[in-house]
Design goal:
Pyrimidine Nucleoside Phosphorylase, Chain A, domain 2, 18 helices, glycosyltransferase (chains A, B), 5-stranded mixed β-sheet, 4-stranded antiparallel β-sheet, transferase (chains A, B), Transferase, Pyrimidine Nucleoside Phosphorylase, Chain A, domain 3, alpha/beta, Nuc_phospho_transferase (chains A, B), Barwin-like endoglucanases, Putative thymidine phosphorylase (chains A, B), PYNP_C (chains A, B), homodimer, 492 residues
Chain lengths: 492, 492
């Protein structure tokens, strides 16, 4: 049918299909569709009006891909068998605690695409709101790890990783931290995700700079050559259940704490990490909004990590505003290069955050304390070793790409004098996305002011980049029609 | 598109549609689709391969119906505005209690089709498991009443109704109770539903006997003429939110107690009832499985009813096995007629249940006690007044139809001697549904034995009726391949 249902598997059948009639299939039934040894469970949509030929059924893009069939293939269709693990979801609905076996069965069925979207929604809803115990979160994390591939870097080898809970546009510290720490000898086979709701993920930014779609063999070779990589994790089937759950979680705007922890830690464990540093920015428009919330998250991350054999350290950081000057894949890549190359005007806030995170990783590695770690990180960056190391990684991944320029640039000017009192992270991210990021790599923003800056009327606040006039206009309409993203405070 | 998505509103757009690109629409986005003053919120499915002409979009059947547009109409499409009441759903996810205003806003948005299926699933999941307080259930009931039409039968007039929580195949007491009680002077404008998961609802059985698709004006006329009606409630927009919630609740097999109570009571209040008798059958394969569960449900039904100004009485009845001999619309209609006409072989269990329920309604009406009520009901049935009254109702609804015979009949024989020790209600219902009920009116079963009967090998257990050989074979395959529906206990 060529229909993208956003991963929900759908089978389309004629209303007068004899199979629908004799088997009693009606719209929204769950059907088992099989071909050879492969089978999927799909939701039925009934099609009236003869759009599908007699004796044929249609499949959504996701169903076609998962079943790996071509048009004209003979399919067998019957009622889906009952999914036993749904009894455990109902058990959780009714307030009971699940054991490891029950959680594993749920995650296995989710991974095998046996759950419909509403079933996943029910599971996520009753697990959110602090309804998962520490043991349940640990079991969920383990089940998500075993749902997919797991990288093994050799017995006793320490593998370092970093993660940011997110919510700050432009906060692209990962390439810097990986370059600094791997220059200092830490092994960091870093796999990152593309943007889900933000204008760029680390994989999007790195994709602007080099090749990131590496298989497991390539990743091993790059890490062998350079001691680190900066790759996209999406093609490696690490914690695949996570991707399926996140899709519904985002749609529901549900950030269940247990789910978040299992999601972050399962990806790290599956990637073979042993030591992970997690950055938790806190601010009114960041993902985590208060210090107590950050502390609770920190303690759960550390405890669940420990239960899974993963050493976790969290750093709670200032999440009041964006970090660096660029927002969007290419603009963030410019900031990363500027810091590594110690260019004039390289964003100091981005550099300082990267150094702070690197110092924590060094301290986790050698236990020499944060002061020593800070000094070591600063030296590695300042004497050019980090930049050389970054070039080594990029060379092993296929070489440095030239950063493109966007077709359309708009400069937005301050309407009056004032001090930048606050910047809304969420709306700023939305603005960059409306301009076309991350689908258009060069689209996004370059901030000309930061928190606390004095501005005078007519001074540029930011530049907006886009690849089409339509996206530029749409973004600017959003900027002017919504509440101000930059709060200018007048002093008198 | 002619696609039946089971009421989820879907808009289909080309992948290369300029609107998708410039507005950043991606699959599963919620879009506002409007035309003139009417608008819907639909889920986007992106269609690849040019099945939709340029400049066009497709709509699911439900979206087309709700928007009331014809092919070729100009539509305006934009991102859906955020649904504010979803914040209350998230509040409930996080374990907080909702107030009346919040619940009303949720129900209003559900009724206006502003919730996606996964959002409804999230709401239902966090309301199930006893997570709704008595006040919340009452607020939910009230909100569901105000979501739709409300019938008014005049100030101070007592309007009687009955309801069965369900789960027993063949338990078609409603037409009998309405005939007996309205013959005794009680006003009973009875509206019923069609089957949702059973082989027949009261509306399906009555549909085999007369016309049930009456509008409000017709119902008023019939009640004026006969003091009662036996109509289908589906076309009257009573508690429409209930229908939208039930659809997802069934798919999730979630029977949230609060939701059940609000569902039952909101329909009765919206229909203008003042006094309702509720039959709660209890048995191992009935909907309610234990006496304590039935008592808890009873107390909540009575309390929520009282808070909404509705007088509710519950009767907890034996739900161990099927009632009557026929299962399926036509076969149940035969039982109803046999009881009313005092035919030889009319099922005594069905008659006795109807008399018992009628006696409770008489007692609710005149307070003369159950003994007096029983005597009154028995007399009305025995002297033919109930049959005359039933004919009066049916005549006012358009006259009695002739009951059809099914094309295929199969007689299943007892494999050995024994006593019928148990009958599985759920599997029996499934068997009748596989035979084609309720879509094929004449399809279903006629039981030849009941609980406790002695049977000898070769004696018929039941007759199975179907309109196609395929459905007959499919039903019989289910019967033989599953655990026995009739447990034959050998005595020695």
């Amino acid at each position: 049918m060529g229909i993208d249902t956003h991963q929900e598997l759908v089978v389309y059948m004629r209303d007068d299909c004899h199979l629908c009639r004799s088997e009693g299939f009606v719209a929204s039934n769950r059907l088992n569709v099989s071909c050879g040894g492969r089978s999927i469970i799909a939701v039925l949509n009934v099609v009236y009006g003869g759009h599908i030929p007699h004796g044929h059924v249609g499949l959504s893009i996701s169903a076609l891909e998962r079943l790996r069939v071509r048009p004209g293939t003979l399919l067998t269709i019957k009622h889906a068998p009952p999914i036993r693990s749904l009894a455990s979801v109902r058990k959780k609905v009714f307030g009971h605690t699940l054991n490891g076996r029950e959680i594993e069965a749920i995650i296995n069925d989710v991974t095998a695409h046996r759950y419909s979207d509403i079933e996943i929604a029910a599971f996520l809803s009753v697990c959110a709101g602090g309804r998962l115990s520490l043991t349940e979160i640990t079991d969920l994390t383990r089940a998500m790890v075993t749902s997919g591939e797991r990288l093994d870097w050799g017995d006793g080898r320490r593998i370092y990783d970093k993660h940011c809970i997110g919510g700050l546009p432009g906060n692209r510290t990962t390439p810097l931290v990986v370059a600094i720490c791997s220059a200092g000898g830490l092994v960091m086979p870093k796999t990152s995700s593309r943007a889900i709701t933000s204008p760029a993920g680390t994989a999007d930014t790195m994709d602007a700079l080099t090749h990131v779609d590496l298989g497991v063999a390539d990743i091993r070779r790059v890490v062998e050559e350079a001691g680190a990589c900066l790759a996209w994790g999406g093609s490696m089937n690490l914690s695949p259940a996570d991707d399926l759950l996140i899709r519904i979680e985002r749609a529901l705007e549900l950030d269940g704490e247990g789910q978040l922890i299992a999601s972050v830690l399962s990806k790290k464990i599956a990637a073979g990490s042993t030591h992970v540093l997690i950055d938790i920015p806190v601010g009114p428009t960041a993902k985590v909004r208060s210090q107590p919330e950050a502390e609770r998250l920190q303690s759960l991350l550390v405890e669940v990590g420990a239960a899974c054999g993963l050493s976790v350290r969290c750093v709670i950081t200032d999440g009041q505003g964006p970090v660096g000057r660029g927002i969007g894949p290419v603009e963030e890549a410019r900031d990363v290069l500027a810091v590594l190359q110690r260019a004039d005007g390289a964003p100091a806030d981005l550099r300082d955050r990267a150094l702070e995170l690197a110092s924590h990783l060094f301290d986790m590695a050698d236990g020499q304390g944060l002061e020593a770690g800070r000094e070591r990180a600063r030296l590695i960056l300042e004497d050019g070793r980090a930049w050389a190391q970054f070039q080594r990684i990029v060379a092993a991944q296929g070489g440095l790409k030239t950063l493109p320029r966007a077709l359309y640039t708009h400069e937005e000017l301050a309407p009056r004098d004032g001090t930048v009192g606050a910047i809304d992270n969420r709306r700023l991210a939305k603005l960059a996305k409306l301009a076309g990021a991350p689908a258009s790599k060069a689209a996004g923003l370059r901030l000309c002011v930061g928190l606390g800056d004095q501005v005078t009327a007519g001074q540029p606040l930011f530049q907006l980049f886009s690849e089409s006039a339509g996206e530029r206009d749409y973004a600017l309409e959003y900027y002017t029609s919504e509440q101000p993203i930059f709060s200018l405070v007048s002093e008198r």
